[in-house]
C-alpha cells in the first residue's frame, strides 16, 4: 500500500531535518522529506529543492507539504501549483508534521492527512498553543468536525497498566489506531481532554502507568474505537 | 520603435548592475526590519540572471522575461524570489508573442507583474512591502514613449518606497516587529524602485 508522503519546507536545513527526525520516529513507514535552507547551505528557501523533495515523497497517494514561514510558504505554493496530488497546509510545523505523519502511517488518504495536520492546533488542555495559532491558522476544518459531533458519547474507564502510561510510543499507537476508525474519540485524564487522533494531545495529558483515563467516542465506529483502546491498554501497548 | 528582446536584455543587465551597486544598502535596510539578506538575495538572483542570459539568448521579450522569472525563483532564496519571479512570469504571459513591446505593452506587463506579486504574497497597499512601490508605479506608468512611461513609473516607485518609512509592516519578516517596523524603509520597496529606475535609464539612452 502506498502512503501519503510529507515534505517539510523550512528556512533551515537543520530545522527541516529535525522535524523529519521527530515525525519519522512515530511513523516509520511514511516518506517524510526535508527541504530546508538554500542550495549553498545558507538560511533561506530553495524552490528546486522543494520540487525535488515533492517528487521523492510521492509514491502514488499524494503529498502534504508543511512550511515554517514567509517565503517557505511561497515556494511550497509554487511547487504545489505545478504538481498534481500535492497539498499545502497552514499548520504549525512540528505538531502538524507529527500529526500528519501518524495519520499517513495509519493509511489515511490525502484529505485526512492534510486534515490531521490542520487539527494539530486543537490540543485540548493547551491554552497557550490554542491561543497562539487561533489567528493565523485555518481552523474551519476543525470547527466543522466539532459541530458535527453528536451528543451522548459512549464512555469507558481504562486503567493504564504499562509502565510509562500514555507516553510517546503508546500515544502514537493509540492515535494511529483511532485514525483508522470512523469515530471521534476523546480521552480524558483529570480535567484535561485530548483528541484520540492527536499524538501530542494524548502525550500532553501526562497519564502515567497506574492512572486511569476516561475514553469516550461518537460516530459510526465508536464501539470499535473504545474496544480498540481497551485492547491496546490491556496489551500494555505491546511494551 | 518598440522594445525588443535585445533591449530587454540590456535593461536587465543594467538592473543587475544597479542591484550589485546597492547590495549593501539593501542588506542594511533589511537588517533593521528583517533578516538582513535582501541585498544578498537580489544580487545572487540577478547575477544568476546574467549567467542565464549569457548561456542562452531568448529571441522574444516573453522568453527573456520567462528566463528571468525561473532564474529568480530558483536562485534568490528569500521572499523576493517567488515574488519577483511570479511578477516576471506574469509579465511574460502578458506580452504574449510580441516581437517588440510598445508603451501599451509595457503598461500591461507592469500591471500583470503587480498582479503576480499580490497573488503570491497577498499584500495590500500600505502593508509596507514592494507592493507600495510597484502599485503607484503601475498607476503612473503612462506616456507616449517607453522613455516617458518608465520615467514616470520609476519616479512613482521611488516616492512609494520613501512613503513606506512611517508604515507598520503587516507582511513579511518585518511584520514580526509590529510597531517597531515604523521609521524604516522597506527593502523590497527600495529594490523595486531601483529596478524601475534602471529600466527607465536604459529606455532614456
Ligand atoms: N507577503 C509579501 N507580499 C509582498 N511583499 C513581500 C511579502 N513578504 C515579503 N515581501 C517583500 O520582500 C522583501 C524581503 O525580501 P527578502 O529577499 O529579504 O526575503 P525575506 O523576507 O528575507 O524572505 P523569507 O520569507 O525567506 O524570510 C520585503 O522587504 C518585502 O518588500
Ligand atoms: Mg530578508
Automatic annotation (TrEMBL), chain A:
EC number: 2.7.1.121
Keywords: Transferase
UniProt superkingdom: Bacteria
Biological process according to GO: glycerol catabolic process; phosphoenolpyruvate-dependent sugar phosphotransferase system
One Gene Ontology CC term in the entry: membrane
GO molecular function: phosphoenolpyruvate-glycerone phosphotransferase activity
Keyword Transferase: yes
Domain PTS EIIA type-4, first and last residues per copy: 3-137
Catalysed reactions, semicolon-separated: dihydroxyacetone + phosphoenolpyruvate = dihydroxyacetone phosphate + pyruvate
InterPro entries named among the record's database cross-references: DhaM (IPR039643), DhaM_N (IPR012844), HPr-like (IPR000032), HPr-like_sf (IPR035895), PTS_EIIA_man-typ (IPR004701), PTS_EIIA_man-typ_sf (IPR036662), PTS_HPr_His_P_site (IPR001020)
A family per Pfam: PTS-HPr
Residue ranges of domain HPr in the record: 153-239
Main EC class the enzyme belongs to: transferase
CDD domains: PTS-HPr_like
Subunit structure and binding partners: Homodimer. The dihydroxyacetone kinase complex is composed of a homodimer of DhaM, a homodimer of DhaK and the subunit DhaL.
PANTHER family documented for this protein: PEP-DEPENDENT DIHYDROXYACETONE KINASE, PHOSPHORYL DONOR SUBUNIT DHAM
Function, in words: Component of the dihydroxyacetone kinase complex, which is responsible for the phosphoenolpyruvate (PEP)-dependent phosphorylation of dihydroxyacetone. DhaM serves as the phosphoryl donor. Is phosphorylated by phosphoenolpyruvate in an EI- and HPr-dependent reaction, and a phosphorelay system on histidine residues finally leads to phosphoryl transfer to DhaL and dihydroxyacetone.
Record-given protein name: Phosphocarrier protein HPr
Source species: Actinophytocola algeriensis
Automatic annotation (TrEMBL), chain B:
GO molecular function: glycerone kinase activity
DhaL domain location: 6-201
UniProt EC number: 2.7.1.-
One Pfam family matching this protein: Dak2
SUPFAM superfamilies the UniProt entry points to: DhaL-like (SSF101473)
Keywords for the protein's UniProt record, in alphabetical order: Kinase, Transferase
Annotated GO biological process: glycerol catabolic process
UniProt cross-references to Gene3D superfamilies, sorted A to Z: 1.25.40.340
Kinase listed as a keyword: yes
InterPro entries in the cross-refs: DhaK_L_YcgS (IPR012737), DhaL_dom (IPR004007), DhaL_dom_sf (IPR036117), Dihydroxyacetone_Kinase (IPR050861)
A cellular-component GO term for this protein: cytosol
UniProt KW Transmembrane helix keyword: no
NCBIfam families tied to this protein: dha_L_ycgS
Protein name: Dihydroxyacetone kinase-like protein
